[in-house]
Amino acid sequence: MCYVMSYIRMAMCVILFLTLFTGMCVADSKGNLALNGMAVQSSLGHPQGDAQNAVDGNRDSDYKKESCTFTKTEFNPWWRVDLGNVYTVSNVTITNRGDCCKERLRGAQIRIGNKLDNNGNNNELAATILTAPNGTQTFSFESVNGRYVNIFLPGNDEILTLCEVEVFAEKKLLINI
Ligand SMILES: *[C@@H]1O[C@H](CO)[C@@H](O)[C@H](O)[C@H]1NC(C)=O
Ligand SMILES: *[C@@H]1O[C@H](CO)[C@@H](O)[C@H](O)[C@H]1NC(C)=O
Ligand SMILES: [Ca+2]
Q1: Strands 109-113, 164-172: pairing kind
Q2: Could you read off the pLDDT of 57-102 as tens digits, one per residue?
Q3: In this predicted model, what pLDDT tens digit does every residue of 15-62 receive, in sequence order?
Q4: DSSP assignment, residue 104?
């Protein structure tokens, strides 16, 4: 009886260890963390411009293909994705609209952090999009820890359109917010 019990206990321990271990491995090599994440934006400027279109896994840059976002023309439009956990984010790949209006994205900021003050737009500035991307462009920076990734476009009468946003991290931090 004693032997059986300790065998079961040991088996349970091994199973627990494997579960934790493989769980950590998966978290560390997840690829695009934004894919199918919860996305929101400051406003909806057009029926086919839902915030979720920037995390649908489709880089199509033709707005008519219904895979890009679209805010109203407004002051300081923004878009945000929730990664669900805190990650050490090292780069963000953005696909700009290609059928027209590339210049609209010039000056947009990539902000990353754990706070939702000012809708997350006060989080750490990771990079600024100085020239409008022609197609898909990756922005690399010194890693920033955060759960929320914002694309913030400061200015008057701006429209924010994103066809895809992909987020890559070195690792998942073992804390939850
Ligand atoms: C943008 O990219 C397309 C296709 O990759 C290319 O044909 C075009 O010349 C580029 N335009 C500019 C302004 O770089
Ligand atoms: C982006 O970050 C990931 C994870 O750190 C890394 O594997 C990948 O090489 C980076 N890509 C670029 C283009 O810097
Ligand atoms: Ca898309």
Answers
A1: unpaired
A2: 999 999 999 999 999 999 999 999 999 999 999 999 999 999 999 9
A3: 444 444 444 433 444 799 999 999 999 999 999 999 999 999 999 999
A4: G
Ligand 3 geometric centre to CA of 31 (Å): 16
Rounded CA-CA distance 48/161 in Å is: 11
Query: Cα(135) to centroid of ligand 3, in Å?
Result: 12
Q: Kindly state whether residue 16 falls inside one of the protein's structural domains.
A: no
Q: Which residue's CA is minimally distant from atom 13 of ligand 2?
A: 138
Query: With a 6 A CB cut-off, is 135 part of the ligand 1 pocket?
Result: yes
Distance 13 CA to ligand 3 centre (A): 43
* CATH number of the domain encompassing residue 45: 2.60.120.260
Domain count, the chain: 1
Domain of 126, in residue numbers: 26-176
The residue whose two tokens read 């939850």 is 176
> Which-ligand-closest: CA of 131?
1
Determine the Cα–Cα distance for residues 97 and 67; give it in Å rounded to an integer.
Answer: 10
